[in-house]
Amino acid sequence: MKHIGTKEYVTERLILRPFTEDDAEAVFNNWASDDEVTKYLTWPTHSSLDESRGYVNYCIQQYSTPSRYQWGIELKSTHELIGNISVVSSIEELECMELGWVIGRAYWGNGYMPEASMKVLEVLFDEVGANCVYAGHDVNNPKSGRVMQKIGMKFEGVLRQFGKNNQGIVDVARYSIVKSERSDKH
Ligand SMILES: CC(C)(COP(=O)(O)OP(=O)(O)OC[C@H]1O[C@@H](n2cnc3c(N)ncnc32)[C@H](O)[C@@H]1OP(=O)(O)O)[C@@H](O)C(=O)NCCC(=O)NCCS
User: Is 13 a pocket residue for ligand 1 (Cβ < 6 Å)?
Assistant: First the structure.
């Protein structure tokens, strides 16, 4: 793969961009402090603005490593920062990358994450040269699975007791899309 780091991209309604230090308040207020949003996530709800500052700083530090991808999702219309999409792990020899995503509750149900993740797929396949992109969700969190379906990922199966999140040890539904499926569409 040819890593390019976290660049800015624009879609119909969204701007995908690197975080800046000024984003901590929006991270805290718009999603990270909400137990309903973090219910099926691997990190605990932020209980203070300082925790969101720490998270934003962690993301910013990652920008010096081109193989790390960590986007903030901004609404084009209001410039509000509403969520995050990232490559949460990658296996270089398989040219394979795993996506993770979160968006503030007030913004759910508008198709924003499908729009953001379609762009990220385009970048990872067409610019970075990934062969496979996958994602997994707690079986009790099917709304994330809906995003995976909407972007053309295929259901691979359930990895039993293979994830740990704020609900404990959980079964994980795994989806993926491979390069050959994307070229089929072009
Ligand atoms: C999963 C998530 C990213 C989906 O983002 P989104 O931009 O809302 O995606 P969509 O608009 O395509 O909606 C996806 C599904 O969410 C569900 N949904 C939509 N609005 C909802 C709402 N207000 N409340 C609860 N669920 C809702 C629907 O099932 C929808 O599927 P449908 O379009 O077939 O009806 C978002 O719900 C989220 O951030 N959840 C919390 C964090 C999380 O679970 N991350 C994934 C961990 S694997």
Answer: no
